[in-house]
Design a protein that fits this description.
Number of helices: 14
Distance between the termini: 36 Å
Shape: globular
Largest sheet: 8 strands, antiparallel
């Protein structure tokens, strides 16, 4: 057979041949993972397979198999919300004195709520200062400075705060504080990741998914977007309004946003529901026992190229006790989830780790893509404190991994998810100017028109960046709609694994 070895036949529109596609895709879909391969006739190429790599044939979106929800899941209303009526709301996203909820969705207010007992201006300054100096993760990984943050962000922010540029922002000399009402961040989108309702985390606990605020850095003086983003990723709390909350409860509350009775996105009724949800996720005390008086923040991720030149750099920060007590925790650099240090690429150490998880070693882990259980976590000694994009994750022993196995591993990394493995231009929500909608990556903007039989009409075809000839077809919005619909029907076992780690 030829070199073009496809996971699903390459398509832009798949409805015309959905019958044949549905027939063999249906055999692949299992709860939580896909089969390692399928038997085909002797004249056909064997296909390595996993449902995460293909257009998902979703039984929960097939009316012949599952009764439709009274109100279908609307991707733009409840899953990835980027409508200007929301992200440019004149009250919630600004500090207008005319509004009682002024600034609730600004970066500054979210930092105030997250800071715990630390003065919020100090809390934010200590976070920013970590790009000015070498820092170290809890595991001892040194993260080098990206000093461009000073002229791009810190000094202009000092100026609009009435301070002298070049002034220290931490330590005894930091006498002039950053004004959080002048915080140079523009809201790009609000993202509901209730689909990340994996039943078991690497630490052995459970998670209800996440809610995310995605911001773009802007020039504090002119307001022009920088090539830098920050995502505040909150874990959905285990209680709401005094009631124990499970993933189904959160999914139900988010799903109300799709109800047409609320009116269009941005209507007073819609905004009231969205505000109520987010208030009960981001406020102090929503998760008692957590640092900083019960903050639900899980991690803060950044993706930027402007603070030190190319390549793009990705970092992760978490609340960490710095010796002042749990409620004075700082937002400090942490190792990246499921992402080895760049230096481990194409080395025997990473080869051995991946080979041990491959079908060649009798393990289905990489093919089945179960990145939610401890056996396939990247060893802590390999984890990165910062990752670079572009970087093509590969193995140095040709032929030891199937293309799907290499792809599944790389897709779960921060840099793989944000570039080569998804054809993404570094960010999934692009920085924007005021009044201009954000641009979603191709991975997040594939149309969700139904083709029938639980399949979408369209897909994003991603050629294997490692050059194997394999083509991976995705419709990530459809997959997320499938998972949320599954949750709303009361089924607790995930139908697919969330693509990537993020």
């Amino acid at each position: 057979m030829g070199q073009d070895r496809r996971v699903v036949a390459e398509t832009r529109g798949v409805g015309g041949r959905r019958g044949a596609l549905a027939g063999w895709l249906g055999a692949l879909v299992v709860a939580g993972c896909g089969q390692g391969g399928v038997d085909v006739g002797p004249s056909e190429e064997p296909l390595g397979e996993s449902v995460q790599s293909v257009v998902t044939q979703c039984i929960y979106l097939d009316p012949a198999l599952t009764p439709p929800l009274p109100v279908p899941v609307d991707f733009e209303r409840e899953l990835v919300i980027t409508d200007l009526a929301v992200v440019d709301d004149p009250c919630l996203t600004t500090w207008s004195t005319a509004c009682p909820l002024s600034g609730a969705w600004t970066f500054g207010q979210l930092m105030i709520d997250m800071a715990g007992a630390t003065p919020p201006e100090q809390f934010v300054a200590e976070w920013l200062h970590q790009w000015e100096v070498s820092t170290m993760t809890p595991t001892g990984v040194v993260v080098p400075p990206r000093a461009g943050i000073r002229p791009q962000v810190i000094d202009p922010w000092l100026v609009v705060s009435g301070c002298t540029p070049g002034s220290p922002i931490v330590g005894p000399g930091a006498s002039c504080l950053l004004d959080l009402k002048q915080a140079p961040f523009r809201l790009l989108g609000i993202v509901n990741r209730v689909d990340e309702d994996v039943s078991l985390t690497a630490a052995g606990g459970t998670t209800h998914g996440e809610a995310r605020f995605v911001f773009g850095f802007v020039d504090p003086l002119g307001g022009n977007p920088l090539q830098a983003t920050v995502i505040l990723e909150y874990k959905l709390p285990t209680a709401r309004m005094g009631l124990s909350y499970k993933v189904h409860d959160w999914a139900h509350d988010w799903h109300f946003l799709s109800d047409p009775s609320l009116g269009p996105i941005g209507s007073p009724q819609y905004m009231q529901v969205l505000y109520s949800i987010l208030h009960d996720i981001t406020s102090p005390g929503v998760e008692p026992g957590n640092p900083n008086f019960g903050s639900a923040i899980g991690q803060v991720r950044t993706n930027e190229i402007d603070f030190g030149g190319g390549p793009w750099k990705l970092r992760e920060h978490t609340l960490q006790d710095v010796g002042l007590g749990p409620n004075d925790s700082a937002l400090a650099v942490h190792t990246l989830a499921l992402t080895p240090d760049d230096g481990f690429n194409l080395t025997p150490a990473l080869d051995a780790h991946l080979q041990g998880l491959s079908l060649g070693s009798g393990s289905p882990v990489l093919m089945d893509y179960l990145h939610t259980s401890p056996p396939d976590d990247v060893p802590s000694a390999m984890l990165a404190g910062e990752s670079s994009a572009p970087l093509l994750w590969d193995h140095s022993s040709p032929g030891t991994l199937l293309p799907e196995e290499r792809h599944h591993f790389a897709l779960a990394t921060c840099n793989g998810c944000h570039l080569d493995e998804t054809q993404t231009p570094f960010v999934h929500l692009s920085p924007r100017s005021a009044g201009v909608p954000t641009t979603l990556s191709p991975f997040l903007s594939t149309p969700t028109v139904a083709a029938g039989a639980g399949l979408p009409m369209f897909s994003l075809s991603v050629p294997d960046p490692a050059g194997s000839g394999t083509i991976f077809d995705y419709n990530e919005p459809w997959r997320r709609m499938c998972e949320v619909t599954r949750i709303l029907t009361g089924v607790t076992t995930p139908y697919t694994r969330a693509n990537g780690a993020h």
